[in-house]
Amino acid sequence: MFAKYIIAFYFRIADIEAGKAAVEANGGTVVFGPMEVPGDEMIVIALDPEGTIFGLVAPKKD
Predict the structure, then answer these.
(1) How far apart are CA 36 and CA 50, in angstroms?
(2) How far apart are CA 22 and CA 34, in angstroms?
(3) What is the pTM for the complete model shown?
(4) In terms of DSSP bridges, do strands 29-37 and 9-12 run parallel, antiparallel, or are they unpaired?
(5) Checking DSSP bridges between strand 41-47 and strand 53-59, what pairing results, if any?
(6) How many CA within 13 A on the CB side of residue 7?
(7) Which one of 15, 18, 38, 52 counts the least CB within 10 Å of its CB?
(8) Are 8 and 55 in contact (CB under 8 A)?
(9) Cβ-contact 20, 13 below 8 angstroms
(10) How many CA atoms within 13 Å lie on the side-chain side of 22?
(11) Contact, 45 vs 31, CB < 8 A?
(12) Among 37, 36, 7, 32, which residue's Cα sits nearest to residue 20?
């Protein structure tokens, strides 16, 4: 069963697609995203190979 509350750290990066590719190339799992969020930014939520949740946030590209 999942915890009722989860705290995730977000890492600011320059390119969300490159970040997503890096997660997958290094054994991580993308849970969802890329997804547009308010503020003209994009996010990805992912799990590292050990199952720790984290997020990536980057400026939206036009």
Answers:
(1) 26
(2) 13
(3) 0.87
(4) unpaired
(5) antiparallel
(6) 0
(7) 38
(8) yes
(9) no
(10) 11
(11) yes
(12) 32
